[in-house]
Sequence to fold (286 residues):
Amino acid sequence: MNTGKTKNLGVMGWPIAHSLSPAMQQAAIEQAGIDYSYVALPVEPEKLPQAVEGLKALNFSGWNVTIPHKRAIMPLLDEIDEDAVIIGAVNTVVNREGQLKGYNTDMLGFLSPLQEKGVKLAGARALILGAGGAARAVLWGLLRSGVAAVTLAVRTPEKGESLAEEFRSRTEADISVCAFGSEDFRKAEAEADILVNTTPLGMTPKVEEAPPVDWDSVKASAFVYDIIYTPAETRFLREAREHGCAIQNGEAMLAGQGAAALALWTDIEPDAACMCHALRAELSKR
Ligand code: NAP
Fold:
């Protein structure tokens, strides 16, 4: 029961009805036996400043931030963690006695299954497919993990080039950009030790779509990661698995970003497996 002692958490977005975070966070809160409550907070874009002030006035301990507020909330905060500044988006706010600090836990979520599986990133060559919002956390996570080279493969080279240019000053790794299907793309897919799909290609309902990877060129030893979580196995991952590659879907990233947020708000070590389980259970109902 939510009492006067209960600490409040939530997720703000617009729309928010389909968010998986309440089911996932509430499961971890119950598993840990802590007196917290996590709710969905529908916040229209033009009401964001009022909503932030309102949550502060209501003494919320913190909240997640999702589309369309991840960038817009940044000027409304007192402080922003350096990784979130570099990624250019905040997905978690912590309220410490009225001081609001923003974080980005998507990068930690992305890295968590790679660390768990012992995937060697230091010195590796990575190929990231897509250069949108999620690609920024993926790119920074890979660069921070010491990859030697990253190729961004895109359909709109100008967008990829502006992302690459922004990150070049922050790394000694080589960052290059190529168009899907180009000669440079063929070279990058053949050399990659890790391939990450950050495009929505293959996401439900368009499950027959996939990024244009020629699996015959890819090393069977490459690790293949799709950050999509519906379906659990995209066509991209199925083809990678059939080619002999180790694979990872986006469920652990989603659960991992939630676990990292809950760890920031509370003094517990969240049970990421429990969060992943709750996520799967919620997805199976939809
Ligand atoms: P986004 O900002 O819209 O970026 C999408 C990227 O994919 C852009 O580079 C876009 O290229 C490219 N793209 C889109 N449609 C394409 C197509 N038909 N062919 C080639 N490229 C295409 O989206 P996002 O927020 O980064 O999300 C991308 C995916 O990641 C979604 O499926 C989302 O569900 C998933 N995601 C998962 C997690 C997780 O926790 N597992 C977290 C965040 C996102 P243009 O710039 O040329 O349009």
